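B., you asked whether I could sanity-check this one before it goes into the benchmark set. Here's the sequence:
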Amino acid sequence: MDLNGIIDFANEVTDEIGKFKVDNIFLSPAKLMSDQFQIDNLEWDSVPYGEDEIDRVPNDKRGIYAFVIFQENNVFPPHGYVLYIGIAGRNSNRPLRQRYKDYLNSKKVIKRVKIARMIGLWHKVLKFYFAPINNDISTDDLQTLEKQLNSALLPPCSVGDLDAETRTKRRAF
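And here's what the prediction gave me:
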């Protein structure tokens, strides 16, 4: 038996595949099919993670955002995986771009372990999706929408912003 070969193989598997494992992937079909969202329509746009296209993120609008693993390819079917959903403008008029900059600041990111892992592992295929909202949308409505989307998609890096019933049931897993 070549123990060193086995150890090398185990290390290779962990380095190439194992570190990218996402535990607890859940989706709620009933909540995905719901048409009972706090806001009727959102217009989503996206930029690749990083500062290259930051000027495309609105600097004058609050809104909702998501970090999504996504890589366009002429061979892959349409796909994407939502890792995190949040809002810009929680009890403030803080715009989407300012909130996005928090995720580009390593000192802020490192304090949030799940977010640091998300960015550290998937930054090359991570997109920042954002949907600006009008000023007539209240913070309460925005927070409710955040909970509704998180409760339907249960992104692995979003842990707190779920409706109470879903949060309770998620603890079972």
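One thing to flag: The chain is about 35% helix and 15% strand. Otherwise nothing jumped out at me.
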